[in-house]
């Protein structure tokens, strides 16, 4: 069940990523998009500043959770390495 779940989630994420890219490119020409914040800038370009703020806040929250998760994993790896005298 695990490989099916991983592959299915990868397919779903790929489809959603492509759909968002198509929508953003339909909203604003790709030449006018800033790669750092394309989705937020596309909404700001159309006068939806509040939506750009919500998207930016979601991006910050997502990046924060990823960094915290990586830090937790890194401390466990460093602990295991030090316990095995590999550090």
List the keywords.
87 residues; 79% helix; mainly alpha; single chain; 3 helices
Question: What is the share of helical residues?
Answer: over 70%
Low-confidence stretches: none
Helical region count?
3
Assembly status: single chain
| Residue share in β-strands | under 5%
Structural class by SSE content:
mainly alpha
- Helices and strands, in order, run as HHH
**pLDDT averaged over residues:** 88
| Main sheet: strands, sense, barrel | none
How would the global form be characterised?
Answer: elongated
The number of strands is: 0
First-to-last CA distance:
36 Å
Radius of gyration: 19 Å
Concise structural overview:
The protein has helices spanning 2-27, 38-45, 49-83. It has 87 residues and is mostly helical. Helix 2 (38-45) packs antiparallel against helix 3.
Description:
This protein is mainly alpha-helical and 87 residues long. Helices cover 79% and strands 0% of the residues. It is built from three helices and no strands. Helix 2 runs antiparallel to helix 3 (49-83). The model has no long low-confidence stretch (mean pLDDT 88).
Secondary structure layout plus pairing:
Elements: H1 2-27, H2 38-45, H3 49-83
């Amino acid at each position: 069940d695990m490989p099916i779940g991983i592959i299915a989630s990868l397919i779903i994420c790929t489809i959603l990523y492509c759909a968002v890219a198509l929508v953003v490119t339909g909203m604003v020409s790709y030449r006018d998009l800033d790669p750092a914040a394309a989705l937020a800038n596309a909404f700001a370009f159309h006068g939806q500043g509040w939506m750009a703020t919500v998207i930016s806040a979601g991006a910050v929250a997502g990046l924060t959770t990823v960094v915290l998760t990586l830090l937790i994993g890194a401390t466990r790896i460093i602990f295991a390495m030090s316990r095995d005298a590999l550090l």
